[in-house]
């Protein structure tokens, strides 16, 4: 070769070492041209006339790549490669998929003439285009650079591209033998196609691969299975692993692209493929990139498994710590370079670490992959990896476990405890509601401290303690002036899990200390003004957006984005900062998962022990049902019964709208536990304009029975409440200066009137005519003989037949329809079948999906089964109850051709009773608007998978407003790069991160009961 790269021979040696698990390769994903001296005087071609010319005109493409390589940096191990870029997954186009060029990449649509018999047509235009393009590029290169091998992709992804993802996922269950046969057919074609393309591009025996530009002395391929994130480990071993192994056996140098945290549970199966040389790790959207400490242990495990690694998008400042941890053998670095000065700096660091061994590890931490002759019962790779994961990650909480035997008790002589004995304390109201009144800009949230931060920060309310302390100070002062006894710190989300959304994990301690400083100073100021009314500071600890109960390392080994130990560590870090900041109470609030609460309590206790301080803990739960079950179906009463060994001061509920409905729960908690009781409800229901339904006067009236009945010790406000709401509470807690309402006495029932709903026994059915009846005091759950129980549910017909439920859970459409017909023949009302069987079944399948016990195929089949059953009931519902829960228009936004997640959501919504109008992919704003207008939709659901396309969601919302439709339709958004923060920023009504929660969100948006 007459190459433009001066140090090509050195780079080849680095690659040879890397393929043999030694040394370091220093490369980058895409070349840069800024500040680079051209290697040859190659003029740039004229701009393409359209996207077809840009991607599919061999002459134009060859001219462009010739110019591109000539002007690209080739320092370090950056390779001179023409990126032909006909993929990813271009084998699907060769087999009949339809090419479409986008602004930044090429899309491949399903074959309209697809049949289950996979055949290779040597005259197919897409196959001829591949060869013409490679030959044109090879002729233009003249030995100055390599022509990269196109990314043909792995069989299951290829099949999904030409057949449709949903159909392939269903095939894993419905016709697995057919799927296996097709996978073998695709593999056979893969080798024929590969060999012919290799003969075009090779330089002697050498070759390079496109996209990330890697080199090998012989045949090389990158393998990948994106669809594997949606299937079980068992299905991966059946439909992917054997065919990946074939490719590794027939191609000398192989690299598997592990793409996203959802793919990590297939790592053990990959490590079992002895012929596989290396594994590339790309964390995916929303995750820290490849140089983050979060992935150190993953790299070590891959290296210990005998594979080299490729770490992607590593920054210069991450490089040295990364190599410090994982060593300098078998490491391929795809750097995030911007100029040649950065490359020079990285080269110096790499030379320092090249061939340096990794830090020693304990023997039990090493993964050893057994040979094929070891029996399964002797070695289970999945279990082995899970064991190592559990061991390594448990070290983060070892200190916590060590202090658990230490029992902390409440200081009953403290000023706080004495105050609670004689009066009801008033907690402040919502911090977020008050912040919204200031209409802060992105610049306000950034301040000088984070002026150049690379992530949008608007909406990170906790950060204001640093960037706009005047706002936080003024809000606290307003609540204190209103009469609040306890103010809570502006730290609801100030732990590293939530702060990771803003890339501020490293600022957690600073944020908490700043928030504590403001609240502490003001509380002390008001205590000095009136020592008879001391003010206290509660350190606010929110639940995070994650849930331990729906995530298990044993179910999905792979260091996912969240697990119990990471939550423990995050909570302990926050609790330690709050304690250091001088709070009087640790308030663990809005608990929607008791497993999260357990972690928070243990972490708080560990932080207290380490700090040598003892603080009371307030526990405040979010519940979904009047009997005290949360959205996960967990009983808060059962959980509270198990926290006796911790310094818990109070238990209660917050973030609820119907005070009257949940009063019996508060009464029961007071009677059945020995804790103080807290309540801080919302100001009613939110309106479209962001206001809430209960004025301060209405809020006061709604809360009065809790105070008059001595139900609570602490009363306050949650969402929608302001200082005026709290002022009204303070006025009734102390109706006359110096005269206080007496609080609840822990362990004693509350003689409160008008709380529990009862059925009017004289009426037909279970209609609640007399709305309320006196509830007798209960001592530890024992009722008086002369009075009815607290809540006496009406007797219901017990139906033994769970046929509809079982059929839907099993994904059997015919059985679901037949079971539904039997119910109808027995005279069971359609709505009872829907609520008692169908919705319950879909909730069960959704829960299994969340738990990692079911996968996308099972979700799709359950949705189909429910739809089949629902079809029988629709004629019976016509003219009576609504035939559907509502109409949903769903589509993927302009410029985005991804439809897997969108179709899954559509299927789940349809299966759960919505009428779904799926308008496809690459949908412009005007099409969304027209379809909403035409169908009179209740919900518009938008999906995006790319950060470059998700911004179109805002355009659609603005188009709805311009058309006068925004107040007529609810908007929900989702997709890999989308977050709750982004949804709030663009004015969406809701956000969901998966198909299961999308159903729950849609039901809430249309006002359907859960």
Summarize the structure.
By secondary structure, the chain is α/β, with parallel strands linked by helices. α8 packs parallel to α10 (241-250), α23 packs parallel to α24 (564-580) and α35 (925-935) packs across α37 (952-962). Residues 362-382, 384-405, 551-561 and 753-800 have low confidence and may be disordered.
Gross geometry: globular
- What's the arrangement of strands in the largest beta sheet? 13-20-19-18-17-16-15-14
**What's the mean pLDDT score?**
83
Percent in strands: 5-15%
- Looking at how many chains there are and whether they match, the oligomeric state comes to single chain
Describe this structure as you would to a colleague:
With 1010 residues, this protein is of the alpha/beta class. It is built from 39 helices and 25 strands. An 8-stranded parallel sheet has the order 13-20-19-18-17-16-15-14. Strand 3 and strand 4 (106-109) form a beta hairpin. The chain is globular, with a radius of gyration of 31 Å. Residues 362-382, 384-405, 551-561 and 753-800 have low confidence and may be disordered.
């Amino acid at each position: 070769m007459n190459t433009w790269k001066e140090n090509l021979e050195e780079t080849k040696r680095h690659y040879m070492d890397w393929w043999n698990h030694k040394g370091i390769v220093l490369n980058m994903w895409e070349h840069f041209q800024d500040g680079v001296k051209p290697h040859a005087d190659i003029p740039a071609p004229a701009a393409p006339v359209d996207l077809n010319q840009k991607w599919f005109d061999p002459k134009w493409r060859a001219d462009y790549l010739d110019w591109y390589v000539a002007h690209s940096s080739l320092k370090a191990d950056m390779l001179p490669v023409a990126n032909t870029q006909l993929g990813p997954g271009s084998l699907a186009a060769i087999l009949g998929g339809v090419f479409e060029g986008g602004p930044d990449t090429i899309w491949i649509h399903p074959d309209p003439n697809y049949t289950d018999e996979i055949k290779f047509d040597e005259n197919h235009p897409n196959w001829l285009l591949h060869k013409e393009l490679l030959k044109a590029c090879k002729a233009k290169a003249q030995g100055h650079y390599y022509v990269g091998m196109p990314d043909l992709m792995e069989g299951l992804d290829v099949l999904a591209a030409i057949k449709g993802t949903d159909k392939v996922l269903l095939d894993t269950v419905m016709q697995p033998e057919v799927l296996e046969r097709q996978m073998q057919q695709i593999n056979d074609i893969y080798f024929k196609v590969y060999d012919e393309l290799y003969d075009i591009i090779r330089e002697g025996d050498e070759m390079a691969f496109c996209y990330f530009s890697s080199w090998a002395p012989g045949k090389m391929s990158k393998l990948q299975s994106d669809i594997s994130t949606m299937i079980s480990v068992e299905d991966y071993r059946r439909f992917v692993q054997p065919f990946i192994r074939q490719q590794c056996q027939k191609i000398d140098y192989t690299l598997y692209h592990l793409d996203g945290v959802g793919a990590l549970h297939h790592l053990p199966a990959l490590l079992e493929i002895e012929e596989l040389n290396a594994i590339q790790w790309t964390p995916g959207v929303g995750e820290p990139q490849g140089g983050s400490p979060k992935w150190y242990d993953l790299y070590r495990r891959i290296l210990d498994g005998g594979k080299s690694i490729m770490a992607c998008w590593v920054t210069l400042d991450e490089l040295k710590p990364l190599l410090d941890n994982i060593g300098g053998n078998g490491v391929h670095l795809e750097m995030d370079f911007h100029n040649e000065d950065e490359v020079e700096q990285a080269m110096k660091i790499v030379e320092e670490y090249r061939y340096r061994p990794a830090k020693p590890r304990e023997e039990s931490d090493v993964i050893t992959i057994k040979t094929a002759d070891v029996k399964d019962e002797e070695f289970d790779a999945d279990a082995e990896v899970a064991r190592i994961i559990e061991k390594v990650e448990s070290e983060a909480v070892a200190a916590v476990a060590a202090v658990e035997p230490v029992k902390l008790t409440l200081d009953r002589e403290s000023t706080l405890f004495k105050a609670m004995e004689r009066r009801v304390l008033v907690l402040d109201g919502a911090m977020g509601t008050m912040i919204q009144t200031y209409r802060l800009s992105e610049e306000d949230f950034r301040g000088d401290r984070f002026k150049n931060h690379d992530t949008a920060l608007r909406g990170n309310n906790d950060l204001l303690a640093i960037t706009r302390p005047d706002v936080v100070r003024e809000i606290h002062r307003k609540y204190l002036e209103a009469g609040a006894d306890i103010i809570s710190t502006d730290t609801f989300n100030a732990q590293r899990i939530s702060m990771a959304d803003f890339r501020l994990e490293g600022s957690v301690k600073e944020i908490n200390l700043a928030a504590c400083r403001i609240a502490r100073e003001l509380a002390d100021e008001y205590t000095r003004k009136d020592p008879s009314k001391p003010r206290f500071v509660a350190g606010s600890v929110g639940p995070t957006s994650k849930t331990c109960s729906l995530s298990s390392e044993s179910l999905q080994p792979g260091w996912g984005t969240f697990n119990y130990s990471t939550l423990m560590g995050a909570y302990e870090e926050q609790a330690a900062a709050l304690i250091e900041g001088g709070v009087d109470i640790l308030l663990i609030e809005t608990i929607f998962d008791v497993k999260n609460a357990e972690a928070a309590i243990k972490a708080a206790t560990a932080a207290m022990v380490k700090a040598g301080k003892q603080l009371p803990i307030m526990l405040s739960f979010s519940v979904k049902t009047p009997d005290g079950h949360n959205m996960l179906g967990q009983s808060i009463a059962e959980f509270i019964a198990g926290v006796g060994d911790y310094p818990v001061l109070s238990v209660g509920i917050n973030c609820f709208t119907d005070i009257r409905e949940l009063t019996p729960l508060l009464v029961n908690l007071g009677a059945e536990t020995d804790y103080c009781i807290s309540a801080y409800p919302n100001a009613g229901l939110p309106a479209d304009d962001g206001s809430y339904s209960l004025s301060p006067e209405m809020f006061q009236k709604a809360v009065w029975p809790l105070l008059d009945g001595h139900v609570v010790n602490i009363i306050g406000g949650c969402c929608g409440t302001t200082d005026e709401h709290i002022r009204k509470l303070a006025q009734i807690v102390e109706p006359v200066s110096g005269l206080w309402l007496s609080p609840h006495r822990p362990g004693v029932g509350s003689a409160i009137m008008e709380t529990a709903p009862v059925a009017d026994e004289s009426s037909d059915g279970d209609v609640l005519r007399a709305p309320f009846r006196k509830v007798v005091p209960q001592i530890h759950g024992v009722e008086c003989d002369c009075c009815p129980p607290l809540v006496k549910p009406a007797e219901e017909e017990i139906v033994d037949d769970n046929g509809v439920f079982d059929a839907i859970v099993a994904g059997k459409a015919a059985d679901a329809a037949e079971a539904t017909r039997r119910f109808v023949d027995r005279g069971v009302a359609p709505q009872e079948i829907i609520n008692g069987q169908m919705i319950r079944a879909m909730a069960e399948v959704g829960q299994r999906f969340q738990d990692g016990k079911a996968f996308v195929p099972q979700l799709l089949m359950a949705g189909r089964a429910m739809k089949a059953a629902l079809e029988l009931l629709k004629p019976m519902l016509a003219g009576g109850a609504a035939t559907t829960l509502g109409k949903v228009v769903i589509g993927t936004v302009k410029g985005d051709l991804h439809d897997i997640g969108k179709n899954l959501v559509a299927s789940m919504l349809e299966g759960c009773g919505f009428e779904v109008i799926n308008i496809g992919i690459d949908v412009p704003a005007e099409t969304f608007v027209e379809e909403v207008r035409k169908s009179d939709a209740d919900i518009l659901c938008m999906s995006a998978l790319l950060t470059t396309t998700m911004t179109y969601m805002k355009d659609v919302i603005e188009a709805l407003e311009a058309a006068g439709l925004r107040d007529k339709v609810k908007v929900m958004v989702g997709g890999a790069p989308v977050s709750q923060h982004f949804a709030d920023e663009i004015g969406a009504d809701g956000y969901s991160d998966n198909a299961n929660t999308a159903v729950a969100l849609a039901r809430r948006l249309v006002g359907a009961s859960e």
